[in-house]
Design goal:
two-stranded antiparallel sheet, 71 residues, 2 strands, mainly alpha
Amino acid sequence: MQIHADGAQVRRWRDKRGWSQVHLAEVAGIGLRTVQRIENGEKAARESVMALAAAFGVDVAALTVDVEAEA
């Protein structure tokens, strides 16, 4: 199942911590290309979003976009 993650929020949190995309990928245990795709607004596997949430220490809901609310 794929989730539409809030790529802008991921980028803001990453920048706030002074992390590169490479560092975030390593901390989260996901691929660099996955981080790049998420930050560019593409959908991601649920597991990838969960890994990012764990890396940032937040709930998965904090990283997801409510597509219906945006419509």
